[in-house]
Amino acid sequence: MTIQAQLLLAVLAPLVGAIIAGLLGKKLGKVTTHRVTILGVLVSFVIAVKWFFVFLWGDATAVDLTVYEWASFGDVTIQIGFMLDSLTAIMMLVVTFVSLMVHIYSIGYMHDDLGYQRFFSYISLFTFSMLMLVMSNNFLQLFFGWEAVGVVSYLLIGFWYQKDSAIFANMKAFLVNRVGDFGFILGIGGIFLLFGTFDYAPIFTTMGVAQELVSLGGQPQENALALMDLNKTFAVWGDIEWAAMSFICICLFIGAMGKSAQVPLHIWLPDSMEGPTPISALIHAATMVTAGVFMVARMSPLFEFSETALAMITVIGAITALFMGLVAIVQNDIKRIIAYSTLSQLGYMVVALGVSAYSAAIFHLFTHAFFKALLFLGAGSVIIALHHEQDIRKMGGLYKKLPITYWCTLIGTLALIGTPFFSGFYSKDTIISASAEASGGFSGFAYFAVLTGVVVTAIYSVRLLLIVFHGKTRTEEKQFQQIQESPRVITWPLIALAIPSLFAGFVFGKPLLFGSFFRDSISVLEEHNVLQAVEAHYTSAIDFALHGFTSPVFLMLILGIVIAVIVYGWAPRFITMWAIFLKPVKKLLEKKYFFDDLNEKVVARSGRWLGQVFWRYGDKAIIDEGIIDGGTNTVKSIASKIRKIQTGYLYHYALMMVIGLVALLMWLLFKG
Amino acid sequence: MLEQLPVLSLLIWLPLLTGVLVLLGPGDKLLAWTQRVAVAISLVVLALSVWILIGFSTSTAEFQFIERGEWIPSLNIAYELGVDGIALPLIVLTCLINVLVLCGSTASIKFRKTQFVAATLLMTGCMNGVFLAQDSILFYVFWEAMLIPMFLMIGIWGGPNRIYATLKFFLYTFFGSIFMLVALIYMGREAGDFSIQALQQMPLSETEQKWIFWAFLIAFAVKIPMFPVHTWLPDAHVEAPTGGSVILAAIMLKMGGYGFLRFSLPVTPDASETYAMILIVLSLIAIVYIGFVAIAQKDMKKLIAYSSVAHMGFVTLGTFVIAQLASADAQSMALQGAMVQMISHGLVSGALFFSIGVLYDRLHTRQISDFGGVVNSMPVFATLLMLFIFANAGLPGTSGFVGEFFVIVSSFQADWRIALFAALTLILGAAYSLWFYKRVIFGKAANEKIERLEDVNTREKSVLIVLAVLIIALGVYPQFLIDIMQPSIEQLLELSSVSKLGG
Questions:
Q1: Which of B86, B335, B479 to mutate to test the interface with A (most CBs of A within 10 A)?
Q2: Which of A438, B168, B446, B454 could make an SS bond with B372 (beta carbons 3.0 to 4.6 A apart)?
Q3: Per-residue pLDDT tens digits for B167-187
Q4: Would A666 be classed as within a structural domain?
Q5: Cβ distance B391 to B475 under 8 Å?
Q6: For chain A, how many structural domains are there in total?
Q7: H helices present in A438-516, as ranges
């Protein structure tokens, strides 16, 4: 098969599955539906695995191909096409693998749901959309995938459409994402202004030349941009002008902030937990929310030339990483704890982007996809076993009852908190080291945030583990006795995700972080190359892990675990003490820094209020009653006279108007 | 054989004559047969329009399928028809909507059904006439004649407040077009020729252009409608029967956009450039201000009507932003955006008004608060409506995205601040569309009536599916449309970039 055929097959197989499941699902029945959709995703997965290893072991070069011209006029051509390079390949692997696991898991999880076929149709459609996003070779298709995953996310958050909280959450998610997209589309407009194209390849070529001017020619960044005629500015107000490159990068990043849920556009992600748990794993942990991180990494040739944008990325990521992690500590809903953890981990990835450690960001995206999907699916297994109980205060002592779920969750947790040798360690430790080495704006704060974040991550993760699986049960005795481990269709995907959660870092760390894997797809200016410094410690995966035991990061980790074990394990009354001493802090965290209140009571309310005001006063009072009234009064008086000769049939009026019109026309034409 | 047929005339006179015959015919006694004949003729008309589409050459900007006959030779007023890339998509849209209205919405008309059929046919003939006319007076006659059937449609089959709405509708649009007539006659007498081409080529002084520009503007701005002369539209929609709303939103509003492209830009290029900024600002107000107003609506039809005004803001923005653009490609993009937006809005707003009709036929209310949880009893309808709602919010992959994308990106090339306001539609459009959908469709069934609702029947489903397929097709492959329009758009850009003052 040609490369084009393979890529088309990878994209279209899930789409066909989604269409069959959506249109014929009821006729085909549950089993055929899930078989068809799983087959579709399996096809994509096989192709993704092949290309991942081709790029990992071989020396394949990037492929850029056009499928069809979406729009073309004048010298503008907007295409639908694929760019296949290492970055695409790794994203394809992550998306299709997690999607496949979630498809299989959902056979068990959604078993009794009335919308079974609809669910499989949606998740296959999601896989298609996400693949379109990561495989795109231009901004238009990127935006298509970007919005399409948003729509499927909307459909899945509101999957149980009778629940008020679900249909509130899905609208909120879509609208908040649209705020990000507002920035994104302006960024795309700027791209077209600066480069005259939407295609990646010519943009990267131009930026590649600019980069060579910097690295080989020793030019400062501004000069390089000026030489490439990329130093345009945008007038803001009066004499204030913004540099085009920074403007564009910030706009694009605003898009990323929506999709990857960065403060203050993070508010939709915790609410998205209203959706079924498998999609929380797939969409709201492993894949869709990482689209923003992917996009910035994809655009690294641009972002490298904007110190302002990088500084903004760093600070936003750092705030998200630290402060969202803190919120996770006080949550009691098992899924929301993991959701806040996801926010925090996304913050880590964004910090990595901000300090130009793009490959570290993508590597953390890679490992995080496995262990966070694992944690979500593990939580789902617990939820199912407890008949849809999500409050951790009603759990406890479950490790005996759910051994497979417990061990898998334990592996996921150890990976998440960054235990040496686990996958999360390799990616997270690299991010922390990279931010220590970085010198850009806010990198000091970022280092502080990601380092402190380690303690926080350990606290909320161990807390979850202890309260859910250890200690005495808080479930009713009779009910507790009936708890059973989930069926194999649920536990096997857990095991399949636990394996990469354990080994992915150890195996892939070196080639992905410091090898040549990303050489064609990510570009870093010499002066930003922090990973080079980190590489010095990374002689081998084993050494790096052993070195990890002596680093301050490890002390932070131990500190976090000790705090959690003391507070939540050995001495639960510490919780009450903690609550007394830190009451205002706890209140602040429980209120999630009042972001939700700000959104609902200020932003949303003032939007509706403005609509009312414009309508009642603008349209009705001023235009209709004010301006038009004068006119209508005259009309009324004329109408009352006409009424005397009325016949009661409207078309008589109409006829008279036409006659009048023709008469007027004749008069005007023939008068002179 | 087909080559010898005066196809363009048939597009106009076939529906018109059928309409007259239906009106004079046996009335509601032979309703079923009358309807069948009307649908059959309409299908023939649609087939003719598609045949023109197939035979249309996309390599030239010249008018094609030209027909010329004498009308008032002493004044050089001719019966002249022709079609170019700007008119063609609108004609196919008109013929399609005509079939869909006859198939889809006569069932909800309860009395004088044959007359409703006649009104629809008459309107279609006139609207085709507007798009095909090559002579300005012929154009004007169809432009005004088209009002009568619409006026009747709202007046006879409309809601309780129909008299107010018809009066407002008629006065607004009639008032607008009087100025256009004066301008046309002035120019025709100056040029000694009333053909549109002659008007486009005649030199006009700055003062003349200013007056003529404003005369045109009043006519077209009311029609499209632009802020602040838009308030007739929500009233007309609320009172109109479903079929009337569909035609009004899908086709009639496009007359304004078509007028800007056919007259304002090429006939008064210098004035268009002078006043472009005013129109850009008014367009942005339409997009942002009306977007907020739409959020506040409680009546489904008003909401979609206001959303139409906001969407038409993109048509006027795309049309007039070209004055601020330097590169020909960006200008093409802007005008392509305006045109695609018109076609797309025809499909999407048509589909939305059909959908509201489906709900209205069942519950006889248009208040959003009377609904809730419709998905429980009408899953197929809910799925289709979701597609239309997302198309209305400009989702990529649907036709609604293409025009907005082109206009936002091209206006960024003029000034990023224009794009900033235009791009707010991403948020506002999604807000009013999705909030509407949430309140009507999602949730538990609000009451027993909703629990017992029947899902769309075959007739309703077919109409909605046809529109859904076209909305997706246009979103996935807009190039089909772009190819047809590009030569004419390039020629239009040439005409509008050459000053009429110097010579």
A1: B479
A2: B446
A3: 888 888 887 888 899 899 999
A4: no
A5: yes
A6: 1
A7: 443-469, 477-482, 488-513
